[in-house]
Design goal:
CATH superfamily: Nucleoside Triphosphate Pyrophosphohydrolase
Radius of gyration: 17 Å
CATH class: Alpha Beta
Order of helices and strands: HEEEEHEEEHH
Helix content: 10-25%
Shape: globular
Strand content: 35-45%
Number of helices: 4
Oligomer: single chain
Length: 175
C-alpha cells in the first residue's frame, strides 16, 4: 500500500489502474461480506495487490488482515472490472480484480479498522453492493462459474527467466 500512497503523492487523485484480489468466502452455503468503514457500504473481502505479490498471495493476505481467518482458495472466478471507482478522498481508479472462492481453514470472522461489520448472507438475503466488480463476481458465482486456480509465476527478484531462459526484458525485445 505504501506504493500507492507514494504514487498518489505524485499524481494526486487522477484516475489510475489498480489491481485487486479478493474472495467469496463460503460457509454453510453463505457468503461473507464486509460493511466498510470508508463508505459504510457492503462488499466482498479483498483489496489492493502489493508490489511483487501474486493475486493469490494478495487475496490470502487481505482475507487474513480483514477477517483474522486463514482460508484455502478453492477456485478462480475470473477477472472483474470496476471502471469508475472513486474513494471518499476523491482518488479515482479503474480497478481490476481477480476473484476467487475460498473455504475457512481456521478462525472466526473479526473486524479490523476497515470494517464496521462482517456477516454471512445467503443468496436470498444479499446486501446491496457498492462495487461493480463485486457485483459481477457474485453474478459469476451464482451462475456456477469456477476455474482451476491460477498458475501464477512468483516474484524471484530483479529478473525473471523467460520461456527460453533469458531475461524477460530481453525476450520481450526479441533478444
Amino acid at each position: 500500500m505504501d506504493y500507492i500512497h507514494e504514487l498518489r503523492k505524485q499524481i494526486g487523485p487522477r484516475k489510475i489502474i489498480l489491481n485487486c484480489a479478493g474472495a467469496l468466502i463460503i460457509r454453510d452455503g453463505k457468503i461473507l461480506f464486509q460493511r466498510r468503514t470508508d463508505n459504510g457500504l457492503w462488499g466482498l473481502i479483498g483489496g489492493l495487490v502489493e508490489m511483487n505479490e501474486t493475486y493469490e498471495e494478495a487475496a490470502l493476505r487481505e482475507i487474513r488482515e480483514e477477517t483474522g481467518m486463514e482460508v484455502k482458495l478453492d477456485s478462480f472466478l475470473g477477472i472483474f472490472h470496476n471502471h469508475d471507482m472513486v474513494w471518499s478522498n476523491g482518488d479515482a481508479a479503474h480497478v481490476i480484480s481477480a476473484m476467487f472462492t475460498a473455504s475457512i481453514v481456521s478462525g472466526e470472522p473479526r473486524i479490523d479498522e476497515e470494517s464496521y461489520e462482517l456477516r454471512f448472507f445467503g443468496e436470498d438475503e444479499l446486501p446491496e453492493l457498492f462495487a461493480e466488480d463485486h457485483i459481477a463476481a457474485l453474478d459469476a458465482y451464482f451462475r456456477g462459474v469456477r476455474y482451476p486456480l491460477l498458475r501464477e509465476n512468483r516474484y524471484q527478484g530483479e529478473t525473471v527467466s523467460g520461456v527460453y531462459g533469458t531475461d524477460h526484458h530481453d525476450h520481450a525485445r526479441g533478444g
